[in-house]
Structure formats: structure tokens, C-alpha cells
Amino acid sequence: MKDYMIRGTAANDQIRFFAAYTKDTVETARSSHNTSRVATAALGRLLTAGLMMGAMGKNEDDLVTLKIDCQGPIQGLLVTADIHGNVKGYAKNPNVHLPARQSDGKIDVAGALDLGVMSIIREIGLKEPYIGQTHLVSGEIAEDLTYYFATSEQIPSSVALGVLVNDDNTVRQAGGFIIQLMPFADDETIDALEAKLGQFTSVTTELDKGKTLEEMLEDLLGPLTIHDEMPVQFKCNCSRERVEGIVISVGEAELLDMIKDGEPIEVNCQFCNTNYVYTIDDLKQMLEKAK
Question: Measured between alpha carbons, how far is residue 121 from residues 3, 40, 68, 88 in Å?
Fold first, then answer.
């Protein structure tokens, strides 16, 4: 099954939903950053959430960034997604290792994050981006986003995110959903949804049974109306030319110092971990452009 995302409504439009299957997307991120098991799980959850929240945009150039600053050993996470199903991101400490939780043997994402703040930055074509923030209430990311939607956007929501990692550290399953109640949802619909969610196991459990996003959501919501379906992917928009522009922006004095050092420089893209090497001749050409 290829990675994809759907959005739509259910219960006579009283509920809207977003759901994403992201196994290859998370595996690409894992491979690019060589993340540990716990970093793969944490970053994969945030990448999946970013994709769905990116799909909430209305304009072609809208972007959403999910940033976690935390006290745990992973140190922080950053993910950026657009409205077209493209996402990129990284963990500040991709090599963090933690033992599994003693309570259930699962990957300890909350332990990797510990206390911290999640920022949601929406670039929607205005002069300044919209920024919402919430304290991490559990470090499980899905619960933190559920709390964010309820407190910052006043939208009753249920967020579920999951990443299942194989013994060889590759990604076995990944995905998630965001279910939101519309303002006119009646008590019967709300009670029925709460009952179904109370019986729900986990996203990765359902995916590992072979269920599609549609089947998983139908179990929770009943008949669905799918408004949109699109492929999703881990995609960084960096390039040699874009990075060159960043190097030029440091100014003539800095470029002259680099040239005097007589050594090539290497610039790393944090989002995709691609390295760009620029020779002394490259730097001289950049200096001419800077002038």
C-alpha cells in the first residue's frame, strides 16, 4: 500500500476527519537521518500529524510547522508540511536511545520528550504567521495535539498517531487520524463517537491487521464521504542553488575568510541530511555574486 491521505466527513457532516498512511514517508526520514527506534517513533508521529494539519490549509502556498522544544534527551523536533502532501522534518538528537516502557513494552516517546512546549506555526499568506502554543501534557504527541486543538483552536478533536518499528529498526507501519466534531454535532453523535473511540486499540494495530484508512475510519464513524485523496511523501525542497544563496547571504567578509582558509566548505540540510560541498572556486564565484 502506497502512502496516501484522505479527508472527508461522516455522520451527516457532523464530523470531519483527516487520515494518513505514512509508512514509506517515515521510513525515508528514518533512513535519511539514521534515527534510533525512539527517534523514529517520535519523528514519525510528528511527520504524520504535520501532513494532516498541512491538508487543513486553504491556499496553495500555505505551510504548517510543528515545533517541539523539550527537556528530554531527544532535545526537540521540527516538521514542516504543505497543502500538497509534502512533509520534511528532523529530530535534534536522532541517536537518542531509551529502554522500552516497563508498563507495556512500547517505545518510550514520552520519556524521550519529557517536559516541553509544542508550537504550531501556520503561514497562510498574511504578513506574520499565526502561532499557537501548548505545553506538552503527556509527550505522546497525539494527546498533546488533542489538547492543543481543544484549548487553542476550540475544536473538540481526537488525534491518533502511531509508528511500529521492526527489529532491524525499519518502519513496519505508520499512520494516524484526526477526527473533529463540528459545532452543530448532536449529543447522540458525540456519545456514539466517544463509545467507539473507547474501544479503539491503536492505529498501528489496525494497520498491521491489513486494514485501510477507510476501513479503520468506517469502524469508528460509519459511512464516510471522502472529499479528497492524495499521495504523501517526505520531500525536502533544498537544492545546491538554494543552499548557495544562503552561503552568499553571509556577506563578502565571511566569504573572503572562507576563501583564505583554503578549504572547501560543507553545508548540511537539517531537514533531509543532504550535504553540499563547495570548492574554493565555487566560493570565489559566490563572492562575485555577493559583490
Answer: 25, 23, 11, 15
**3 with 231: CB under 8 angstroms?**
yes
CB of 13 within 8 A of CB of 180? no
In the predicted model, what is the mean pLDDT of residues 23-42?
98
Average pLDDT estimate for 17-24 = 98
For residue 201, the tally of other CB atoms under 10 A from its CB is: 10
Contact of 67 with 78, CB cutoff 8 Å: yes
Name which of 37, 153, 22, 162 is nearest 94 in CA terms.
37
The one-letter code for the residue type at 255 is L
Q: What secondary structure does DSSP assign to 150-216, as a single string?
A: HHHS---EEEEEEEEE-TTS-EEEEEEEEEEE-TT--HHHHHHHHHHHHH---HHHHHHTT--HHHH
Q: CB neighbours (10 Å) of residue 237?
A: 12
178 CB-near residues (< 8 Å, 6+ apart) = 17, 18, 19, 49, 52, 53, 145, 149, 157, 158, 159
Indicate if the pLDDT at residue 26 is higher than 90.
yes
- 26, three cell numbers: 517515515
CB 29 within 8 A of CB 89: yes
Q: How many CB atoms lie within 10 A of CB 207?
A: 23
Q: State the Cα–Cα distance between residues 145 and 291, nearest whole angstrom.
A: 47
Is the model's pLDDT at 128 over the cut of 90? no
Residues 176, 161: contact at Cβ < 8 Å? yes
250-288 pLDDT, tens digit each? 889 999 999 999 999 999 999 999 999 999 999 999 988
Q: Are 55 and 232 a contacting pair, CB within 8 Å?
A: no
pLDDT above 90 for 127: no
